[in-house]
Amino acid sequence: MIGPHAFHVIAGFILAALLVVCGFMFGPEAEGEEVEPISSGSLIAYLFGALLIVLNSFHADPAMITFGLLVAGSLLVAWRAPAATAAIGAAALFVFVVFAEWAVRGNPDMLVLPGGPLPGIGPSATDGSVSLHLTAAAIFAGMFGVTGFLAQHRFTSAATTMQWAAAATFTPLALLVALYARIAQLDRSIPFAILAVLLAAAFAAATEYLSRREDRPGHSASIALFATGTLAALALALTFALEKGWLTIALALVSLGTAWISLQRPIAFLRTLAAILAGIVVLRIGYEPRIVGDAVGTTPIFNWLLWGYGIPAASFWAASVFLRRNGDDPPLRAVESAAILFTVLLAFMEIRHAVNQGDVYRNSAGLTEVALQVCTALAMAIGLERLRIRTASIVHNIGAVLLTVFAGLAAVFGLMLLETPILWPINVGGSFINLLLLLLGYALPAVLALLLSYAVAGRRPAAYGNTLAAGALILALTYVSFEIRRLYHGPVLSHGPTTGAEQYTYSIAWLAFGVVLLGIGIVVGSQRARMASAAVIALTIVKAFVIDMSQLTGVYRALSFMCLGVVLVAIGWFYQRILFRRQAAPPPVAGVG
To answer: How many CB atoms lie within 10 A of CB 161?
Structure first.
């Protein structure tokens, strides 16, 4: 029977309000607007009892009415006596528990085990009616929303106004989610999306009105809570109305909108909220990197990855621009990190999608994919190096270093070891238009690494730039060598013996490469190019004495050493001319006095 229990909690609640709550009727004197634990706790105890009656009676109508009366009584008492303000938060939480339990009980498939539904779980004849819960939800949302907003005028204590504002925003949102789960069963629902938009409009109006009032204790926090409610309601509207990848895009755009609003209304929490939304989107792609699952499509570039990663990336970059105008802080850095992450993932996922015919989960990575990723990482590292000069952002700084490290590791272990065509039977294609050049295996990474070394010159330690330049030299020399091997061995470089003519061609090509580097170093005055030339020629000398002398015979051995000697003599002559040109002119002869 519900009646005796309902009478008990109602009578106890009334007695507690009359005799215990400070400053209400016959209770002790209140000390300003200070929240008093016993005053709030006495009301919370009877609210909890009413909650248990509702849950154990399967939301019977008398139990719901009793619970509603006690919630309304809590708002009334807290309105008159700030000492009981903590009961407002408990009432809001208990309202959510009631409706959340009703939503789960009405959808037993949420709690189904492989053997079937749990005993006692599921709709029954004693379940509360949908119409009663809809009416109750509307009443609860209105009570908490209106009183929470009006309380911003009535009270002056920061702790009190914040608790009223929190209840005013949390309760309508929580009720909307519970009703959506029960009635729409987590499926797409335009009516619920419309309700969420209306709720967002109400919160936005409250935010705008409070922003125009004079500043009071806790005023900024209350405004932030209503602004948060606005954006949360918009996010729910998008969740209710959209499917699959559109929700990811929508949340990223909400993060951008939050950053823009933080410029118009400088509320500190809005910056944090923009970062939180960015974090939610990042977690979303961790759950399903393809954004829309199997529906991602097979068309290279123009598929769902472009929209699912590209639009959030653009949103986060724009949001970081807005946030940077008001300073560099953790929320800005979080949004900047999300912008870099989505940009990198967009490029890498599109590469993987194109190379693997749409299967981004393929458990392999060939030379083409690794080469494209190395080039992309180096190009983005160059962009971040240029960007960090203007922004001085630690995120752009670390992002540039991480991309450079990734490119270096991928080049060493991917291009040079695991996917190198010299060790594995990889068909590289035509003589010059092939994987080594067109698909950017070694030539373009060498150019990009060299450009990156110049981008960091004077802004990072010299060893950092020199390491990049050395990597560029190694990649360029590897490209020259692989092109020669392609001419002698055909499209599969790992097949066939190395002939004397091929060894001789290597020596001549390396010498020519070293001479070209020397010429560039002399023309542009680059010491780095001259040092690279010296390294290549030294390597050629070692090859001549270690390999050519033992493997070449006859005319190839003679030509190899003759060419090496001619080049060394020519280099000596060039260096002498350079030294002579740099000699200081003789001092002028003093005139006769």
So the answer is: 27
